[in-house]
Design a protein that fits this description.
The complex is a heterodimer. Chain A contains 21 helices and 2 strands. By secondary structure, chain A is mostly helical. Chain A folds into 3 domains: about 50 residues; about 180 residues, no CATH class; about 250 residues, MetI-like fold (Orthogonal Bundle), CATH 1.10.3720. A two-stranded antiparallel ribbon of chain A has the order 1-2. In chain A, about 30% of the residues are buried. By secondary structure, chain B is mainly α. The longest helix of chain B has about 50 residues. Chain B is flat. The model of chain B has no long low-confidence stretch (mean pLDDT about 85). The chains are: A mainly alpha, B mainly alpha. Chains A and B meet through helix 8, helix 10, helix 11, helix 12 and helix 13 of A and helix 1, helix 3, helix 4, helix 5 and helix 6 of B.
């Protein structure tokens, strides 16, 4: 594609400019993706280089250090302790003792079982005296995987701490050589509310995230490579084990699943609808919300506060009440159908939730009802921030309302709300509540009956994932694969859009 | 002379025309806004009206009850609804306290401190956020089950889960802290204040809006939480929250008996939350307009 300079670009007609921008956007996509992988390569290279540098530093510290430093390589915190930094020294030493104790007592076992996820499942033995079968439970794949992951986390933490311990010895030696004064335990404690106050503040939130988000996600990503499901729960019925890429093969295979269409066709259908839904849900809400906000903001409209409060009130009412109620309102024997029938407008009930097309349109319309108040709030603030003199001068130049909107309001709004639109798009892709509480995925897609969970026409990937895990067979491994695919799609979209958004590139300009 | 007068008349006419046009468009806007308000409020009015219906408990084709009464509210009182309501209230209360503390710690740190791992940490959390949170449910359920925090004991488990990862939602309050000038901190630091003192003597008093916003959103969240609550309390009514419990009333086999009770429950759930929300509306609007956009 030919790249125009600024001057050449300005000479183009409006239509050409528009085309140019569109083409530039799509031509930018391969570049953005290539740039991403190039960046990954660079990061790996950098990481490798710094790893070598670390090793070198460790070796040099060892050879140049005194005997206290050398002992610290085995007894962590020794350097600190012998130089009077008791608090740090004791922390290091304690951590080492706990680590070694854990590894010897249980950690080693979990780690050694990790490659197989257990050898012996539950066994049944016939007991003649009581005339019944007694079950002995042996290995527990679930625990092995869970504690195996935890142990690896622990080992990484230990290596990091050990490295910190070595660094400490190096700095102690350097400070002493310069004739400086070492920090005492009291200084360390004081710094926790001063220079290193951030460590105190972050301790709790980061622990929570590590234990309740990072670890579960690592675990679930690993589950995608096992056959963990309801029939192999790893303990009470059968062990599960590693299966490599089999589950990905299942999801992407063209073979028909259980008599219906193949998994890949089902996945493709759901993904397409998820993307269409996310696009429509985001932009209908965005433009209509902006429209409502502009109406309320319009000069000469009174009772602005009242209109706003009426809409905002609907934000306060918990979504499950309004969604469930509206869902029943549009049901076959719901209020809407019965009222229309009573008025004689229709003879048979309208298939709001029975016909795939009707259901999809209804879901989007109800989502507008849910989303507009929120968007109205967001856009109101930004609309009021647009300098009034821009409109003033546009009016003097003879611009009509529509021109003012497309030339001033819209560019300004898009520029500022670009990042919000992106997060709202990905949020809508994962909008479990609206879909599940309104339709539960219905109407059922009979062609996809072979796929796990009962797939429906309004199912998003996220509701499908939920159905897979709560269905009769509880195919956790498949849910995990679907979850990974959701991540891949969201990450790809975010990456491409992020690299093309003006307000991200010029973040500083706008601030 | 004549031409001048003519143009003057013309402009006057145009002015009049503009005014008329303005009046017409304003009327149109009023009509539209009224329609919108009605459409938005109507379902809630329906819920309210149907909660007083006595003559039948199933969905019917009219809204205004033929026989008014408090039967549905009595029915609520005699059902498990009390338990669900208390469960949700406890979760919301704890979440409001701990989520606020955790989120404010996180966002304040990321806004004010510059340390080596800050950038990588924020990028890492952005990537973590792209995983569907539902994925973690499976393992968290098993872990909570091992700890004995599921089914009837679901409440502490739900509090734990809803609080633990709340640090990831730091965006809005970080946006707020970014707007407080850093020179304030620096001035205090020059005067010998520690970072801790800066936080509670200078920043916190200025942060009332964002603290209230965080408390409000954290308190409102658990009232609508359906999916994880259902997963954790699976099948045990004593551990339900209002969303899970009331959802079970609208299943095909229960809806004929419980539909109006659902409406009554909806009213009871919505009233306190809505009143609280309307009282603190100002802070909510500030938080949403200020923080949601900057990200």
């Amino acid at each position: 594609m030919k790249k125009y300079s600024d001057l050449e670009f300005l000479r183009l007609s409006k239509w050409q400019k528009f085309c140019y921008r569109i083409i530039a956007f799509f031509c930018g996509i391969p570049g953005a993706i290539a740039g991403f992988f190039l960046n990954i390569g660079k990061t790996i290279q950098k990481g490798f280089q710094s790893f070598i540098a670390e090793l070198k530093d460790i070796a040099i510290t060892f050879t140049t250090g005194d005997w206290k430093t050398k002992v610290s390589y085995i007894v962590m915190g020794f350097g600190n302790l012998t130089h009077g930094q008791f608090l740090r020294g004791i922390m290091f030493l304690l951590f080492e003792i706990v680590f070694l104790f854990y590894m010897i007592t249980t950690g080693g076992y979990w780690l050694s079982m990790l490659p197989s996820l257990g050898h012996q499942g539950p066994t049944k033995e016939y007991n003649a005296i009581y005339d019944q079968y007694t079950t002995t439970y042996n290995d527990n794949s679930f625990k092995i995987l869970l504690y195996g992951v935890l142990t690896i986390f622990f080992i990484v933490a230990f290596i990091y701490t050990w490295r910190a311990n070595v660094k400490q010895c190096k700095t102690i030696n350097m400070i002493l050589k310069r004739g400086g004064k070492l920090k005492r335990s009291g200084d360390d404690l004081r710094s926790l509310v001063d220079e290193s106050f951030y460590k105190t503040l972050l301790a709790l939130p980061l622990t929570g995230i590590l234990v309740f988000t990072v670890m579960p996600i690592v675990f679930m990503v690993l589950v995608a490579f096992t056959n963990y499901d309801g029939a192999h729960n790893g303990y009470s019925n059968a062990l599960f084990t590693w299966v490599g890429l089999d589950n990905f093969n299942t999801l992407f295979s063209w073979q028909s699943a259980g008599g219906g269409q193949s998994y890949s066709a089902t996945f493709g259908e759901i993904l397409t609808w998820t993307l269409i839904w996310a696009f429509l849900a985001t932009f209908t809400n965005y433009f209509l919300g902006m429209f409502v906000a502009m109406m309320i903001n319009k000069k000469g409209i009174r009772l602005k506060k009242m209109w706003r409060t009426i809409l905002v009130m609907t934000v306060a009412i918990p979504q499950f009440i309004s969604l469930l109620y509206v869902s029943k309102m549009f049901a076959r024997n719901g209020l809407v159908n019965l009222t229309l029938q009573g008025m004689g407008l229709i003879n048979s009930p309208l298939p709001f939730w029975e016909n795939p097309m009707w259901a999809r349109v209804t879901v989007i319309i109800i989502n507008i009802w849910i989303g507009i108040p929120y968007l109205m709030l967001i856009t109101t603030g930004i609309l009021m921030n647009i300098p009034a003199d821009l409109y003033e001068s546009a009016r003097i130049d003879g611009a009509n309302g529509w021109q003012q909107y497309t030339k001033i309001t819209l560019p300004y709004m898009l520029f500022i709300t670009g990042p919000y639109l992106l997060t709202s798009f990905t949020g809508n892709m994962n909008n479990f509540n609206v879909i599940y509480l309104l339709t539960g995925g219905a109407p059922t897609n009979s062609a996809a009956s072979g796929a796990a969970g009962s797939v429906g026409y309004t199912d998003l990937l996220i509701t499908w994932l939920f159905k897979i895990t709560t269905g009769a067979e509880s195919q956790y491994y498949l849910a995990s694969v679907v979850g990974i695919m959701v991540f891949v799609v969201v990450a790809l979209i975010s990456l491409v859009v992020y690299n093309l958004l003006p307000s991200i590139k010029n973040e500083e300009d706008y601030q | 002379m004549a031409t001048k007068e003519k143009t003057l008349v013309e402009t006057q006419q145009r002015h009049m025309g503009m005014k008329a046009l303005n009046r017409i468009s304003n009327t149109a806007v009023y009509i539209l806004l009224t329609v919108i308000s009605i459409v938005w409020l109507l379902p809630f009015a329906f819920i309210l009206l149907q909660s007083f219906r006595v003559e039948s408990t199933s969905p019917v084709g009219y809204v205004i009850p033929q026989q008014w009464g408090l039967d549905n509210y009595l029915q609520l009182w005699n059902s498990d609804f009390k338990r669900w309501y208390i469960n949700t209230f406890i979760i919301a209360l704890f979440a409001a306290v701990f989520v606020t503390i955790i989120q404010l710690c996180m966002s304040y740190t990321l806004s004010r401190f510059r340390f080596k791992l800050r950038g990588p940490m924020m990028r890492f959390m952005l990537i973590l956020g792209m995983f569907p949170g539902m994925l973690t449910m499976i393992i968290l359920y098993r872990v909570l089950a091992d700890l004995g925090l599921t089914q009837a004991n679901a409440v502490p488990g739900l509090i734990l889960v809803s609080v633990a990862s709340s640090g990831m939602g730091y965006y809005v309050s970080k946006g707020f802290f970014d707007t407080i000038p850093k020179s304030l901190d620096e001035a205090a630091r020059v005067d010998g204040a520690t970072r801790l003192q800066v936080l509670y003597k200078i920043i916190l008093p200025l942060s009332k809006p964002i603290v209230i916003y965080t408390i409000l959103t954290a308190f409102m969240g658990p009232w609508g939480d359906y999916v994880f609550a259902r997963y954790v309390a699976f099948g045990t009514s004593a551990g339900y929250n209002v969303a899970v419990g009331m959802y079970s009333w609208l299943t095909n086999d229960q809806i004929a008996q419980m539909y109006t009770t659902f409406c009554a429950g909806g009213v009871i759930v919505a009233i306190p939350v809505t009143i609280l929300f309307l009282c603190l509306q100002k802070y909510y609007v500030e938080g949403v307009t200020g923080g949601a956009v900057k990200g």
